[in-house]
Amino acid sequence: MFEYYWPAKWIHVGAVLASGTLFLLRGLGVQARHQWPMHPAARYLSYSIDTVLLGAALTLAALLPQGAFSNGWLAAKLLLLAGYVILGSFALKRARTPRMRLTCYIAALLSFAFMVSIAYAHDPLGILRRLLR
Length: 133
Hints:
5 helices, about 130 residues, 2 domains, mainly alpha
């Protein structure tokens, strides 16, 4: 089963980069009050990338030994993911005011960046662990 680890990991990393980049671009488009970020093609591309991302994440979770999750980094990442999805939804369409959309957009980007730092460090504090030393 280990032979599937590296392909699954690189598919996951690629999907993270694609998903984050698309969210960044769509959010900038919303901030500039363009219509294209909510076009069905942009939304379905986002859904497709996120489906690949989820599939690769589940594959990695199945392949990794249970001890890899013992320090809570995955739980921290999943909690941030839930917040990121909610904030992203408000940033792109649900917030009632442009100021609230911007606030949610910035908070979603910070959540995304922190999730990446947690994944990179395999530590629930991510980059904060290094800053707290």
